[in-house]
């Protein structure tokens, strides 16, 4: 209980990017929005660098699931291009067809 209490009351700390470590993007889409997190893989586990989320427009909510999931990926890569350009990175999504 005390560990959970500490986690829930501690400020979220984002790491600074390290060009020597591999980047990872985890993205997802839902009925009315998209989101993603930029991570770096360290010996201590994945560390968050940045988060993004965006509400879908009425037109975008009519897109198929695969289109919404792809849109989340494209938006994340576009947003974090300055970190990802010239680096290999891992992309994770929960959408099986992708």
UniProtKB/TrEMBL annotation:
CDD domains documented for this protein: RNase_HI_RT_Ty3
GO function term, MF aspect, one: catalytic activity
Database matches in InterPro entries: DNA/RNA_pol_sf (IPR043502), Retrovirus_Pol_polyprotein (IPR050951), RT_RNaseH_2 (IPR041577)
Gene3D superfamilies the UniProt entry points to: 3.10.20.370
Lineage top rank: taxon: Eukaryota
Domain Reverse transcriptase/retrotransposon-derived protein RNase H-like: 1-90
Keywords: Multifunctional enzyme
Name under which the protein is recorded: Reverse transcriptase/retrotransposon-derived protein RNase H-like domain-containing protein
Lineage of the organism: Eukaryota, Metazoa, Spiralia, Gnathifera, Rotifera
């Amino acid at each position: 209980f005390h560990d959970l209490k500490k986690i829930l009351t501690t400020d979220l700390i984002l790491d600074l990017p390290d060009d020597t470590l591999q980047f990872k993007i985890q993205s997802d889409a839902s009925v009315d929005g998209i989101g993603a997190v930029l991570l770096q893989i360290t010996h201590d586990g994945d560390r968050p660098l940045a988060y993004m989320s965006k509400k879908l427009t009425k037109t975008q909510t009519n897109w198929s699931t695969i289109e919404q999931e792809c849109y989340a990926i494209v938006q994340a890569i576009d947003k974090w291009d300055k970190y990802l350009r010239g680096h290999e990175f891992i992309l994770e999504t929960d959408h099986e067809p992708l």
